[in-house]
Request: fold
Amino acid sequence: QVQLVESGGGLVQTGGSLRLSCAASGLPFSIYSVGWFRQAPGKEREFVAAFGWSGGYTYYADSVKGRFTISRDNAKNTVYLQMNSLKPDDTAVYYCTAGRGSRPNDYWGQGTQVTVSS
Reply:
């Protein structure tokens, strides 16, 4: 059974930083693309970032380019999202995902709350 477990969310002030982690199990992690999506209250779920399974390709939503960095450690079956210069608009539940392509969404974690205060 595939499990994705996020951690690292919390409350931070505008301009602050957080690092999200996601530990994966039950799947051949190194051959899956991994990513992060988020959903803010009253809004649709949206893509944030992804890391391809080969070639080190990364993809970002325009809204987070230059501020967020996705990385992965295949030896630890873990994907990270370093979030800097956080804004109140970044407030959302962040979901870790795994799958195929540049918007991996076959498997989802339970989500972790990120709140940015102004």
Notes: The two ends are 40 Å apart (CA to CA). The CA atoms of residues 13 and 117 lie 5 Å apart.
